[in-house]
Design brief:
Layout (H helix, E strand, L loop, with lengths): L1 E5 L3 H10 L5 E5 L12 E3 L6 H8 L4 E4 L6 H7 L9 H8 L1 H10 L7 E2 L2 H8 L3 E5 L9 E4 L2 H10 L5 E5 L5 E9 L5 E3 L3 E6 L2 E7 L6 H17 L4 E10 L2 E8 L9 H4 L4 H9 L12 E8 L5 H5 L4 E5 L9 E9 L2 H15 L1
Parallel strand pairs: 1-2, 1-4, 2-3
Antiparallel strand pairs: 5-8, 6-7, 6-8, 9-10, 9-11, 9-13, 11-12, 12-15, 13-14, 15-17, 16-17
The chain binds adenosine monophosphate.
The site of adenosine monophosphate has 14 residues, from strand 8 and strand 14.
């Protein structure tokens, strides 16, 4: 089977790496000339507006998927005329605009932080402090400001001049959690255990999945929300939803219709990785088991790459590099850790962090 992937970043690279053992072949479509999946497969470098290039891309493919939620919806819909596109393009529509996304969550009965895009009329219903975000194209904390006063809000609006925005209640959360799940072409669904995520400067730094701290109640809450999204979209592939935990409840922040950074631990820490499950899902194969193999952690490498030997001498570590030049704030790789207990895991995270900064 030949799978086309829109976007050739690290997620595309890891999808291909997971698909080769299953006998899959890949072709990438990516506007940027130099990308992490370059070495791995056929590569079409062209603009998303180039219809001839899209036709060449799709020729001979069995299915198309994407690794990036800002792929233009029109491109996904165009390709759908020729081959199935999974996840379905409607998932892109829901995920690309924070207002559409939060409204979609609310319509499904999934709690979110209170939000509005009508700053004149509804500021008081959201209240302060709040977070002002661009509706589109924000990621890794880009295009967002915490505002604590009317003056902050006015300043932030000036900085985001002209862009459509959404204002959300600032949530003094206890933890950030995410669920990664997959739905097959036959409608079968699997869920990974909730990951606990730590961000700094809006960028994910650390994810932990520890079976000893498994919380059945929160897990089933997250699963029921995720299932509502999967079913509403007749979804195929891996989906991630990020939550804030506050007072024992989950509030949905955003979803990603793709494999997700907080699921990278599954490459070494779960029976089946999120990447393999995505490939299985979009190609119509049965989904694999999601159980963790121990206490797991994923440490992102942001802006710098430590010496491989310093990391790999720590027992239980795996290093994943993305073939990207280090730059401030850029994700260039990650380290996965699997340990027998939470204590050992914490100790190893501490050791790894000495080299990661
Ligand atoms: P986002 O781009 O929406 O994923 O936001 C990036 C990070 O900013 C989140 O992971 C949180 O750490 C923080 N953040 C975003 N929205 C809120 C909010 N409404 N309240 C508190 N923190 C937030």
């Amino acid at each position: 089977m030949k799978i086309g992937i829109l976007g050739a970043g690290q997620l595309g690279r890891m999808l291909a790496l997971a698909g080769y053992p299953l006998g899959m072949r890949f072709r990438f479509f990516e506007p940027a000339p130099d990308s992490p999946a370059n070495l791995l497969a056929d590569h079409l470098t062209a603009d998303y507006a180039d219809e001839q290039a899209l036709r060449r891309f799709v020729d001979g493919l069995d299915v198309v998927t994407y690794e990036f939620e800002n792929v233009p919806v029109l491109v996904a819909r165009f390709l759908e005329q020729f081959v199935p596109v999974y996840p379905p393009p409607i998932a892109l529509e829901k995920a690309q605009d924070r207002l559409v996304e939060k409204t979609f969550f609310s319509d499904l009965g999934i709690p979110t932080p209170s939000f509005t895009c009508d700053l004149d009329k509804e500021l008081s219903s959201v209240g302060l402090p709040a977070v002002l975000k661009t509706r589109r194209m924000g990621y890794d904390g880009k295009g967002q400001f915490v505002v604590r006063s009317q003056t902050d809000l006015a300043d932030a609006l000036v900085q985001l001049a002209g862009q459509d925005v959404i204002l959300e209640r600032f949530v003094p959360f206890e933890r950030e959690l995410s669920i990664v799940c997959a739905r097959g072409r036959d409608g079968a669904v699997v869920f990974y255990p909730l990951a606990e995520n730590t961000h700094r400067d809006g960028i994910l730094r650390l994810s932990i999945v520890d079976p000893a701290r498994f919380d059945h109640r929160l897990q089933s809450q997250a699963e029921s929300y995720a299932r509502a999204v999967l079913d509403a979209l007749n979804y195929v592939g891996v989906l991630a939803i990020e939550f804030f935990e506050i007072d024992g409840q989950l509030l949905a922040n955003e979803m990603a219709p793709r494999v997700h950074n907080s699921g990278h631990w599954t490459m070494d820490g779960a029976i089946t990785s999120q990447f393999e499950n995505h490939i299985r899902a979009v190609s119509g194969l049965p989904l694999g088991a999601t159980s963790p193999l121990g206490a797991c952690a994923m440490v992102n490498l942001v802006g710098q790459i430590p010496a491989a030997a310093s990391i790999l001498k720590i027992e239980g570590t795996h290093l994943h590099l993305y073939d990207k030049a280090p730059r401030a704030g850029r994700k260039v790789g990650h380290i996965n850790l699997v340990a027998d207990s939470q204590n050992i895991l914490n100790q190893k995270i501490g050791e790894v962090q000495k080299y990661v900064g």
